[in-house]
Amino acid sequence: MNKQARMQFWKTTIESYMFLLPWLIGITIFFVYPLLMSLYMSFTKVSIKPDGSGLQYDWIGWDNFKYAFLLDNEFPVQMFLFVREAVLIIPITVIFALLVAVMLNQKFPGRMLFRTVFFLPVIFASGQVLLELFQQGQGKLPFADQYEITTTLYQVFPLWIAEVLVNLSQKLVIILWFSGVQVILFLAAFQTIPVAIYEAAKIDGVTPWESFWKITFPAMVPFIFLNLVYTVVDQTVSPFNPINGLIIKNMGEINTGFGYASALGWMYTVLIFIPIGIIFIASRLTSKGRR
Predict the structure, then answer these.
(1) pLDDT over 70 percentage in the chain
(2) Cβ contact 154:161 at 8 Å
(3) Which residue has the higher pLDDT, 250 or 161?
């Protein structure tokens, strides 16, 4: 690399970090300290000082983590329930987003309106709003009761599979509401494919079906992995996630408190990084295979 290329490289790098600087400042001020404090609290027993002047931290080492796995079976059970649902919810959300993006990428009157409609729930639907809608039964499929889908699922599948599918059907509409960001990412991916490629394929007699699998889908693969990561992270903060409810509940318990809740949060974070790491590895292997 010559001198001019090095100067251009450093100029581009500095400019990139300048754009990131507001975010870096915000994340340092509002995120790093609470993160480190929660890590410290996970190794302590947090209680109120006798004089009521603040919190008292008694170092107990790994006891909180041992208690979560060896004595309190609620965390492993809730984690299993979360994983069992996420295995279905995450692929369904990504596949639905891809199909919607394919349709919204077509040229038709009112295309921008439909794109806006699919993204609006991401803006307006907060966690409490979703919980209220779910409690009112607005998240399930409209025809589920009419055709007795729940009864059919219990008759066809084993109990543990039927429970997951029934729970999924009861909030499927709300789950698909949260595909707005994924749809936007897929729409952005479509803009990376030159129109000339489709035109050349059409001249060669390639059908739309073949065009999708030979041109569109390979270009979508990196964005599929990106959306998988985003959807995994999005599910971790979902209002329907039982782990979050468990952590919040233990924060107010006298016997557990902030220390045990922090330990649960850190164990949960580490476990979530496992599927994210698998997705990244699969993405790297796939990208190497295409070179």
Answers:
(1) 85
(2) no
(3) 250
What one-letter code names the amino acid at 173?
V
- Counts for the chain of helices (H) and strands (E), in that order: 15, 2
Residue 228: pLDDT band with limits 50, 70, 90: very high
Give the best-scoring range by mean pLDDT among 11-20, 67-76, 250-259: 11-20
Q: Burial letters for 26-50: b for 16+ Cβ neighbours within 10 Å, e otherwise?
A: eeeeeeeeeeeebeebbbbbbeeee
| Cα 98 to Cα 6, 87, 126, 217, distances in angstroms | 40, 18, 23, 10
Closest-CA residue to 190 (of 228, 216, 214): 216
Confirm if 198 and 211 have CB atoms less than 8 A apart: yes
CB 211 within 8 A of CB 197: no
Whats the size of the chain, residue-wise?
291
pTM: 0.77
Confidence of residue 198 (pLDDT cuts 50, 70, 90): confident
Query: What dihedral angle (degrees, nearest 10) is formed by the CA atoms of 114, 119, 123, 125?
Result: 90
Residue 28 per-residue DSSP state: I
Calculate what percentage of the chain has a pLDDT beyond 90: 3
- SS3 of 180-238: the string is HHHHHHHHHHHCCCCHHHHHHHHHCCCCHHHHHHHHHHHHHHHHHHHHHHHHHHHHHCC
Which residue has tokens 């329907």?
Answer: 240
In this structure, the dihedral spanned by the alpha carbons of residues 171, 174, 180 and 185, taken in order and rounded to 10 degrees, is -10
Q: Give the model's pLDDT for residue 147.
A: 61
Q: Is the pLDDT of residue 23 over 70?
A: yes
What residue type is assigned to position 215 of the chain?
Answer: I
Domains defined along the chain, listed by start: 71-290 (1.10.3720.10)
The CA–CA distances, whole Å, from 124 to 7, 94, 149, 176, 291 equal 45, 21, 30, 14, 42
Give dist(CA 206, CA 213) in Å, integer.
11
